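Pipeline run #58 for the internal structure catalog. This entry was flagged by the ingest filter as a single-chain record with no existing model, so it goes straight to prediction. Upstream metadata was stripped on purpose; only the residue string is passed forward. Reviewer on rotation: M.T. Logging verbosity set to normal.
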Amino acid sequence: MKAPKLSIILPAYNEAKNIPLIVGKIAEAMGDVAHEVIVVDDDSPDGTSGVAREIGLRDPVVRCIRRVNRRGLSGACIEGMMAAQAPIVAVMDADMQHDETRLPVMLAEIEGGADLVIGSRYLDGGDASGGFHENTRARGSELATALANRITGAYTTDPMSGFFMMTRDLADKAATTVSRDGFKILFDIVSRYGSELTIREVPFRFRERVEGESKLGFLVTVQFLGLLVSRYTGGLIPVKFLLYGLVGFSGLFVHMATLLALNGFFGVGFAAAQVLATFAAMTTNFAFNNEVTYAHRKLTGRRFLTGLLTFYAVCGIGALANVSIAVRLFEWDWSAGVAGFAGAVMSAVFNYAVTKLVTWRDT
């Protein structure tokens, strides 16, 4: 085997049927150009990693990274890029929606001096319509692109693209700074480094998915909005903290609804109703954080129960800290509203920091 000139990263989840197809198409498109294909599988239940490894036994160009207890497209891309051998790395979907025949064109642009080449659906010659079955998704993609462009500027026509290529130097730089959460790593890279890079675009036609189901859904949307706000603040507010705060805000409604229902409709005493409402809010907060904020470290089975107990404990300590600080500030002649808000913010920061290390720690 020749040393690869290009490493192609295929982040995958439940793509067992598509992996053989895309690997074959990439081989046809690359011809005699030495390359490697790295499938980064987020522990798919459909056996994606097994399919990739089986192909790798016959064709050493193909390698597989299986991520256990870790999820998220951005994190998968970074791990794949850090495992790549070639001086140039590309990222594309494994679902056949990206046009592999554009890879040699993108490679030529990198070799011509570009730091980053983006496959664009919105450049002249490109087409985004083929990959969306519903008009609502197409309109949603256009809206997300417009919002992203307000932050990234005019560096690209398609900051939301999942099809791009970059130099090893840029990949190494991005790996130390970009968020591992969410699904839009290109947007994160361009918003951070766009002014420093030579960026070029190559049009491509966004194709219809061949097998499987789209990963675009509520979770992806919420994570993207969190990333959008985080980048708008220059990264001052972490994505996870934004999501954690959003979940906490939803817990306020759960708490009040439970309290009013128990005390107002079922006649439960206020003190008991308040305690039960607090536990109800903490339980839903834990469940939502497990699904949204920490989807890449999602707790299941026995770990879900132990995680819930640690979440109760941490939030209980946070509540005591909230009250203690608010009371002390009020005694120092702060207004009740300001003292209460300061206590709530301190409690939220404490809960976020500690549950991140204890409840959803890396395992």
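catalog note: The radius of gyration is 23 Å.
catalog note: Residues 239-358 form one domain.
status: ready for reviewer M.T.
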